[in-house]
Amino acid sequence: MDITKIKILFPNLEEGLHNEILKHGAIKEVKAGETLLKVGQTIRSTMLIIDGIIKLYREDDEGKEFFIYHLDAGQACSLSMVCAAKHETSEILAKALTDATVLAIPLEFMDLWMSKYKSWYQFVITSYRNRFEELLKTIDAIAFSNMDERLEDYLEKQVKKLGANLKMTHQDIANDLNSSREVISRLLKKMEAKNWVVIHRNSIEWIKSPHP
Amino acid sequence: MDITKIKILFPNLEEGLHNEILKHGAIKEVKAGETLLKVGQTIRSTMLIIDGIIKLYREDDEGKEFFIYHLDAGQACSLSMVCAAKHETSEILAKALTDATVLAIPLEFMDLWMSKYKSWYQFVITSYRNRFEELLKTIDAIAFSNMDERLEDYLEKQVKKLGANLKMTHQDIANDLNSSREVISRLLKKMEAKNWVVIHRNSIEWIKSPHP
DNA sequence: GTACTTGTGTGACTTATATCACGGTACCTA
DNA sequence: TAGGTACCGTGATATAAGTCACACAAGTAC
Predict the structure, then answer these.
(1) Core-most of A87, B31, B92, B207, by most CB within 10 Å?
(2) Which among B79, B126, B178 is the nearest to A86, CB-wise?
(3) Contact residues for strand D with beta carbon within 7 Å
(4) What are the residues facing B104 on neighbouring strands?
(5) What is the mean pLDDT of each run of 10 residues along chain B (212 residues)?
(6) Residue to test with chain A: of B58, B66, B139, B154, most A Cβ within 10 A
(7) Distance between CA atoms of A184 and A95, rounded to whole angstroms?
(8) Which helix (H) or strand (E) holds B162?
(9) Helix (H, G, I), strand (E, B) or coil at A208
(10) What is the CA B135 to chain-centroid distance, rounded?
């Protein structure tokens, strides 16, 4: 982990801040599939994503996991910021989708930097705005769209992050969308008929041309 | 509008800040039902709610309005904060549920106060956290709950804000929940059978005892 | 009063999604 | 190579919700 990487990932932050991040951030490596943050866990630091992709979920009482959005390298977990600032517990579940590296910034720096570095304040505000927007889009999807549209959105999102070859089972998708395997299977079949995907065992290939 | 009211509404803000708010905030009165903020509108100020209740909606392409949450006196529109900070346009629709008074703070003070007043920063962060939580709860409701539970939640929320006598039609409720009148009518009938409500014309009365 | 508007109740039907019950297939493992 | 396990396909059926059609009742306008 070196300063150049930090600078590339967070280009909008001030000079001195890059150093501080490097100095005070604790590096944490997680393997794909590992849980970074559980619901109910107390948050003691703000997380910046250095490498990999993190998936955020909302959990219901029976433990069903509903996918909300991704976090990429260069982004911050807004939830960890809000919660951290008030020493509160997590409302969400975060899992590493790929192997990932995150930088945990102890919460005292959150406040300190906020007044010291204008760029940090901007970064935090921007993070919020973006996460807020993602949440609103998620609400749109479940409030206004049917499963077929949601599946399409979902797959496109995944493809954007992971490439056209998605290594996931129908069951995985169904879990993320809070649906059932059979439904997803059938919808995928329809998409295959429209030449949007090729279905393999344990993976699907997105071949839909962007501009039909 | 006097300083004592501001102090009562925003008890956690610093002394000097109350004065600044009073000095720089433009008072805006809106009648019940009026629109405060349209989707796509550019946001030039942060809004603090002084009096009344504001309802926030998400709109779909056909103009259907999906209720997200309420804002009460003493709260701020987080969306207006995020957007204002970046000179961006609104993603949501805000309507006055009751007659209301809001204070519009020009966005330059947003940044200024953020570095000048620790309590302002805390206030903004807290607002975010609370709105974020509301959004997550909204997602829970539509992702995990059926219409009957959602209706119950919705009515309880309304009752908390407006009292047990809700002056609204079944159609109004259906719009907020993105459902249809007939469905709401039927569900209300069931609730009436369980002695949770009394249905009148143009109004319903919530009589469910809190601890059965 | 009559006519017109708005809100409500209800049965019949449609549609989207979930669930159940299988059977088949690829892959692993001993 | 046999048996087990996870994945996938598909028909049958169930359920929640949305839609259509229409009757009626309460309020409003004149």
Answers:
(1) B92
(2) B126
(3) A 169-171, 181-182, 185-186, 188-189, 199-203; B 146-148, 178-180, 182-183, 201
(4) B26, B47
(5) 92 94 95 90 89 94 92 89 68 92 91 87 86 92 97 96 95 97 97 96 91 60
(6) B139
(7) 22
(8) helix B147-162
(9) coil
(10) 11
Q: What are phi and psi of B200, to 5 degrees?
A: -115, 175
For residue B183, count CB atoms less than 10 angstroms from its CB and return exposed for 0-12, middle for 13-18, buried for 19 or more: middle
Can you point out the beta strands (E) in B43-181? 45-51, 54-59, 65-71, 93-96, 100-106, 165-166
User: Tokens at residue A133, please?
Assistant: 């927007």
In a 3-state reduction of DSSP, which class is residue A105? strand
- Chain position carrying tokens 């900070």: B85
Residue with tokens 């001195």: A16
Kindly report the CA angle at A60 between B82 and B136, in degrees rounded to 5?
Answer: 10
Which helix (H) or strand (E) segment holds residue A45: the answer is strand A45-51
Element (H, E) at A101: strand A100-106
Q: Distance between CA atoms of B56 and B54, rounded to whole angstroms?
A: 7
Mutation choice for B interface testing from A87, A136, A142, A150 by most B CBs within 10 A: A136
Other C-beta atoms closer than 10 Å to the C-beta of B23 total 8
For the question of whether the overall pTM of this predicted structure is more than 0.90, the answer is yes
Note whether B59 contacts A: Cβ–Cβ < 8 A. no
- Check if B12 contacts A (Cβ < 8 Å): no
B151 touches chain A (CB under 8 A): no
Q: CA geometry: angle at B170 spanning B164 and B171, to 5°?
A: 135
**Long-range pairs of B169-172 with CB within 8 A, sequence gap ≥ 24:** B169/B202
